[in-house]
């Protein structure tokens, strides 16, 4: 039935700030950047007169992240314990280096990287500029 997860979509208020985070800091490459409007997008989203900027980005291993900008979005308070989708987990090569780079760029972390109890990974959670949680994971040998 399901082949794979096609992409993860993230609604953002500040496109340029989101691009600076995902593209410039994390290394995603933009392969699609268009404003979508009209009958198709209105029908699939069930929103009349909708206009959305869609930016699709790909990581080195082919994972796709989609940034969506509708213009004005209602503010939402996010919690790591909320129901529904709470975070995106990203595998990183060197979590300590990634942590340092992101901290230098004023990214908020819940903690410094921590070794998992089984010592198979180091993990840390941070928030992007929109407040979305990201789990950074480095698999250990």
What would your notes on this structure say?
The chain has 141 residues and is of the alpha/beta class. It folds into two domains: 8-69, 2,3-Dihydroxybiphenyl 1,2-Dioxygenase, domain 1 (Roll); 87-139, 2,3-Dihydroxybiphenyl 1,2-Dioxygenase, domain 1. It has helices at 15-25, 39-45, 95-104; strands at 8-11, 29-37, 51-58, 64-69, 87-91, 114-115, 121-127, 133-139. The strands form two sheets. It has a four-stranded mixed β-sheet, sandwiched between helices. A hairpin with a 5-residue loop joins strand 7 (121-127) and strand 8 (133-139). The chain is globular. The chain starts with 7 loop residues before the first strand and ends with a strand.
Summary, kept brief:
With 141 residues, this protein is an alpha/beta fold. It has helices spanning 15-25, 39-45, 95-104, and strands at residues 8-11, 29-37, 51-58, 64-69, 87-91, 114-115, 121-127, 133-139.
List the helices and strands and how they pair.
Blueprint: E1 8-11, H1 15-25, E2 29-37, H2 39-45, E3 51-58, E4 64-69, E5 87-91, H3 95-104, E6 114-115, E7 121-127, E8 133-139
């Amino acid at each position: 039935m399901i082949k794979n997860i096609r992409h993860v979509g993230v609604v953002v208020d500040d496109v340029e700030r989101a691009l600076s985070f995902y593209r410039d800091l994390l290394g995603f490459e933009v392969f699609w950047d268009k404003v979508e409007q009209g009958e198709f997008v209105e029908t699939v989203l069930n929103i009349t007169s909708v206009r959305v900027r869609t930016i699709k980005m790909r990581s080195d291993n082919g994972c796709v992240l989609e940034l969506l900008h509708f213009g004005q979005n209602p503010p939402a308070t996010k919690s790591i314990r909320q129901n529904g989708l709470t975070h995106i987990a990203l595998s990183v090569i060197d979590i300590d280096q990634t942590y340092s780079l992101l901290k230098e760029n004023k990214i908020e972390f819940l903690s410094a990287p921590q070794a998992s109890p089984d010592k198979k990974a180091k993990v840390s959670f941070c928030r992007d500029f929109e407040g979305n949680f990201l789990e950074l994971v480095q698999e250990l040998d």
